[in-house]
C-alpha cells in the first residue's frame, strides 16, 4: 500500500517524476508507491516545492503541514500530512 494512516496523520510513499507537462496523479508504482508527475524540474528543490503545493491543494492541507520524512533528494519520497476528508475520498477513487 502506498499510504499508511497513523491516528490523524497520513504517510504517503511517492515516486516523483519532475519536468512533466502538468501536475497529476498517475498509477500505483510498484507495490508501495504512487507516481506523481510534477511540472517543475528537479533543480534546486523546485520539484519538491511544486510537489508540496500540489499535495496541499489536492488534499486541502496547509503547505506548512506537509513534511518530508525521507527522500527529499530522491525520486522516491515519503511525505507526511494531516488526514483530511478530501484524502479519504481520494483514496476511495484510487482503489
What does this structure look like?
By secondary structure, the chain is α+β, with helices and mostly antiparallel strands. It has one domain (3-82): Conserved Hypothetical Protein Mth637, Chain: A, CATH 3.30.1200. Helix content is 25%, strand content 37%. The protein is built from two helices and six strands; from the N terminus they run ββββαββα. It has helices at residues 46-59, 85-94; strands at residues 3-6, 9-17, 24-29, 33-37, 67-70, 76-82.
Provide mean pLDDT, rounded: 94
Oligomer: single chain
CATH class: Alpha Beta
- What best-fitting shape do the alpha-carbon axes yield? globular
CATH level 4 superfamily: YggU-like
Number of domains: 1
Write the layout of secondary structure elements.
Blueprint: E1 3-6, E2 9-17, E3 24-29, E4 33-37, H1 46-59, E5 67-70, E6 76-82, H2 85-94
Parallel strand pairs: 2-4
Antiparallel strand pairs: 1-2, 2-6, 3-4, 5-6
Gist of the model:
With 95 residues, the protein is of the alpha+beta class.
